[in-house]
Specification:
Elements: E1 9-13, H1 24-34, E2 38-43, H2 46-58, E3 62-67, H3 73-87, E4 92-95, H4 110-138, E5 141-146, H5 160-180, E6 185-192, H6 198-204, H7 212-222, H8 231-242, E7 253-256
Parallel strand pairs: 1-2, 1-4, 2-3, 4-5, 5-6, 6-7
Length: 269
C-alpha cells in the first residue's frame, strides 16, 4: 500500500462485479484501498459488495459493504447516511453503476430506454444530490463518473440508449464541475474503451453470436494499441483523479481507450 489517498473516505456505487472476477468497480475500490482510502462498497448485490470488501481486507485496507439500488433515491440517501455515520465524511464519490440494452430508436422499447437512463443518468443525479452538500460542508471532494467511449464515438453496434445516456453523463459532469469548482469540489468522467470485463462479455457477446474469441479479436483490431484494456487501467485513472495530484483537474472527460476515440472506423467483426 502507498498513501496517495491516505485519510480519505471513498464511496463507490457499483463496487461489486456480476461475476467473481475483476470488473471496473471492484478493481477501482481495491485500488482506492491500496492507496490508503477507506472504502464504502455499494452494490445492488450485497454478496458482491461483500466480496469486494474481502478483497480490500486481503490487500490490507478497510471497507464496509452496503446494499442499495441506485434507481431508488431513498436507498441512495440511506447509503450516504450510513457512510457518514460510519466514517464521518465523504472525500471521493465514485459512480460506476451502468447498464445497457441493444437496439436503435426503432427497435428499442420505451421501457428499456427509461431503464437505461434511470440507471446510467438519474442514479448520478441522486448520488450527487446527496453527497454534494456533504462535500460543501467539509470544504471539498472529488466526484468521478464512469461514462463510456460510446458517448463520443460509434463502436460498431446499435445501442442508442447507452450512447445517449453516457453522453448525458459527460455533460452532467462538466456542469457539476463548473458549478462547484470554486468550492473545492472537482468532478471528472472516465470513458472506458474496450475493457475486458464480465459485464462487457454479457452485453457485447451476443453481437458476436457467443463467440468470445471472435469478439476479442474484432475489438482488439479496432484499437490502435491492438489489445483490450483491463479493469486496472480504469482503476489507475480513477486513483489519479481522486488524488491530490489531480487538484487542478476538473471537468475532464477522460478516454481510457488505447487510442480508440482517435482512430478510423471500427472493425465490425
Amino acid at each position: 500500500m502507498t498513501d496517495r489517498l491516505a485519510g480519505k473516505i471513498a464511496l463507490v456505487f457499483g463496487a461489486g462485479c456480476i461475476e467473481d472476477e475483476w470488473g471496473n468497480g471492484n478493481a477501482t475500490a481495491v485500488a482506492y484501498a491500496r492507496e490508503g482510502a477507506r472504502v464504502v462498497c455499494v452494490d445492488v448485490n450485497f454478496a458482491s459488495a461483500e466480496r469486494t470488501v474481502g478483497l480490500i481486507v486481503e490487500a490490507g485496507g478497510e471497507g464496509i459493504a452496503i446494499r442499495a439500488d441506485v434507481t431508488s433515491h431513498a436507498e441512495i440517501s440511506a447509503a450516504v447516511a450510513q457512510t457518514v455515520a460510519h466514517f464521518g465524511r465523504i472525500d471521493i464519490l465514485h459512480n460506476n453503476v451502468g447498464t445497457n440494452a441493444p437496439g436503435g430508436p426503432v427497435e428499442m422499447s420505451e421501457v428499456e430506454w427509461d431503464r437505461v437512463f434511470d440507471v446510467n443518468v438519474k442514479s448520478i443525479f441522486w448520488t450527487c444530490k446527496e453527497v454534494l452538500p456533504i462535500m460543501q460542508a467539509q470544504g471539498g471532494g472529488s466526484i468521478i463518473n464512469v461514462s463510456s467511449i460510446v458517448s463520443i464515438t460509434w463502436t460498431g453496434h446499435p445501442m442508442i440508449s447507452y450512447h445517449a445516456s453516457k453522453a448525458a453523463v459527460n455533460q452532467f459532469t462538466r456542469a457539476v464541475a463548473m458549478q462547484y469548482a470554486a468550492q473545492g469540489i472537482r468532478c471528472n468522467a472516465i470513458l472506458p474503451g474496450f475493457i475486458e470485463t464480465p459485464r462487457v462479455k454479457r452485453h457485447v457477446l451476443p453481437f458476436f453470436h457467443g463467440n468470445i474469441e471472435k469478439m476479442r479479436e474484432s475489438r482488439s483490431r479496432s484499437v490502435p494499441q491492438k489489445r483490450l484494456g483491463s479493469p486496472w487501467d480504469i482503476a489507475h485513472a480513477a486513483v489519479y483523479l481522486a488524488s491530490d495530484e489531480a487538484s487542478y483537474v476538473t471537468g475532464l472527460i477522460m478516454p481510457v481507450d488505447g487510442g480508440l476515440s482517435c482512430s478510423a472506423p471500427h472493425d465490425q467483426g
